[in-house]
Amino acid sequence: MRKAYGALAVAAVALMATPAFAQIKIGSAGPMTGQYAAFGEQLKRGAMMAVEDINAAGGVNGQKLELLVGDDACDPKQATAVANKMVSDKAVFVAGHFCSGSSIPASDIYKEGKVLQISPASTNPKLTEDAFTKGNTTVFRTCGRDDVQGVTVGNYILKHHKGAKVAILHDKSPYGKGVADETKKAINKAGMREAMYEAYNDTDKDFTALINKMKQAKIDIIVLGGYHTAGALIIKQSREQGLGAQMMGFDSLETAEFAQLGGAATNGVLMSFAPKAEDDPKNAALVKKFRDAKYNPEGYTLFSYAAVKAWADAANKAKSTDAAAVAAALRSGKYDSVVGALEFDPKGDVKNAVYDIYVWKDGKSYVTTK
Question: Are residues 229 and 362 in the same domain?
């Protein structure tokens, strides 16, 4: 990933087109630019639609919402700049960030600024674990955690490929290394040992040396702890260089851009992701509304929508936008949402999170194992 330190001065926190009489400011934060911008777009689009729907229904406690959008480019330093700007602009809530490496440092700033944070997509357990240890009760997420996701992938490998030679790769990021390590723990616990455990740089473009090493080790399964951009290059170059190993990735592959970048080589790639909310018949009208606006609500779009709606429902229940009051309301109830019933544990994690296994085929991912 290209580091965006030079962009700190313009860490994008732009006002979206909302009514001039908006009275409550909330934020959406993620990688709006850079190589992970497809996921930033998911988070932004979900938040925008939620704000539109909430305002149309009367707002929060009778007040309209105004959406601020922050671009962290999945860079920790830029994420802290975005968080500081959200606080100074008096946002009371932020749906974000995407990368765990952004959400974790931003959470400390939100705590000090009394801003409630719900990440739609950051899966590293440290986000909520560290916050809980520090006494920060205003951090939540609408997605699952890597210790659930890693076990899901690990169990799939144990069931379907127990005798395989496994290479576990990660991009050194809190997310990529985190989910790779959770998968490693899952297979190691069952007595299976990986043949390779290697790190790569997410800015690399040529993976020939890594692929040659996997060929020499006769690798059967590639566990990819990293994002879709590098994943697409690794699988494409693997096929070009004669390595036919099965790739298994995680939720960060869930964007059509993965198939666009990797082409036909992505066919057959497996990944873990939560049950797809966009395929749930109860969400058909909402999905149509997105698609009528020329956007397909893939990946974490509806998780972002759910984060904003859950906050709004809890703020209405608390009759307040105070972070502590809304956090207490979130923990004390069960909230119906487009991604299913949201019930939070004391740490701010969703109870009973599940992941399915999907396979990529002709530019789309389809569930293969629940």
Answer: yes
Q: Where in the sequence is the domain holding 175, given as residue range(s)?
A: 147-273+355-369
Task: Compute the average pLDDT of residues 190-213.
Answer: 97
- Contact indicator for 248, 158 with CB cutoff of 8 Å: no
Confidence (pLDDT) at 5: 36
Crossing angle of the two packed helices 126-133 and 100-112, in degrees rounded to 10: 30
In angstroms, what CA-CA distances link 252 with 133, 258, 313?
27, 9, 28
Q: How many domains does the chain have?
A: 2
Domain membership flag for residue 251: yes
Q: Are residues 139 and 156 in the same domain?
A: no
SS3 per residue for 60-99: ECCECEEEEEEECCCCHHHHHHHHHHHHHCCCCEEEECCC
> Taking a C-beta distance cutoff of 8 angstroms, is the pair 210, 235 a contact?
no
In the chain the first and final C-alpha atoms are separated, in Å, by 32
Quickly tell me which residue has 């590639």 as its tokens: 222
pLDDT tens readout for residues 44-101: 999 999 999 999 999 999 999 999 999 999 999 999 999 999 999 999 999 999 999 9
pLDDT confidence of residue 269: 98
Same domain assignment for residues 19 and 94: yes
